[in-house]
Amino acid sequence: MEKSIPDIVVGRLPRYLRSLEYMLKNGIKTTSSQELGESIGISAAQIRKDLSQFGEFGKQGTGYSVRYLVDQLQSILHVNQSWDLVLVGVGDLGTALATYQGFVNRGFHIVLAFDNDPAKTGKKIGDVTILGMDQMETKIAESGAKIAMLSVPASAAQEVAEKLIKSGIRAILNYAPMQLILPGDIHVEYLDPITKLQHMTYYLG
After folding, report:
1. N or C, which terminus of the chain has less Cβ within 10 Å?
2. What is the Cα–Cα distance from 36 to 43, expressed in whole angstroms?
3. Closest CA to 152 of 100, 197, 103, 87
4. Considering the chain, what is the average pLDDT of its residues?
């Protein structure tokens, strides 16, 4: 889109989409910003403001067509298509990611997996064969994949991330417990359960 959408707004769209898809699955055909807000803990006014950044999706007094809004949000988030994923690091976490069916159900497919342990290379994990790190740049470039999931030790994360970018990766979901220093046009999301747990324990003291 031509105008710049705040990242915090984009970050809420998947939550809206998940709730709407649940409604659709349960046969609900129309909803309101009030109902949608109550289902995810966001005010109706905030939902209307967020959606207005992308156009007009409902009518005053009649609410939103759930099917139409699902289609529009899927298009905005570019999840109305399949995305190939690259997995780097096949330890305990990487193995869980490789076998998680939720990715496939939402159109995300792990097409390549890499690890630096020779004992793992050549073995199958999920639907892919684990390859050595020495093949990473070539194989990713050949695949055309743009998204990587990084589940390597913190000490290796920066170096691996830089190699991923050289291979053509443009977005990284980082499970390593460290902040990556990367070019501004590379989108990085961080998922560190320890920091999330530490955040929660503050409120339990």
Report:
1. C
2. 9
3. 87
4. 92
Which token pair is 30? 């129309």
Per-residue pLDDT tens for 44-68?
999 999 999 998 886 666 789 999 9
pLDDT given at position 1: 43
* Angle (deg, nearest 10), helices 154-166 and 136-143: 50
Threshold 0.85, pTM exceeds: yes
Tokens linked to 34: 């009030």
Q: How far apart are CA 123 and CA 201, in angstroms?
A: 39
Asked if 173 and 189 count as a contact pair (C-beta separation under 8 A), the reply is yes
Sign of torsion over alpha carbons 153, 155, 161, 167: negative
Q: How far apart are CA 102 and CA 108, in angstroms?
A: 8
DSSP summary character for residue 115: E
Query: CA nearest 10: which of 67, 51, 55?
Result: 51
Q: Which domains does the chain have, with CATH numbers?
A: 7-75 (1.10.10.10), 83-196 (3.40.50.720)
Of 173, 86, 84, 93, whose CA–CA distance to 133 is shortest?
86
In the 8-state DSSP scheme, what is residue 86? E
- Distance, in Å, from the CA atom of 141 to the CA atom of 15, rounded to the nearest integer, reads 32
Residue 6: the pLDDT is 92
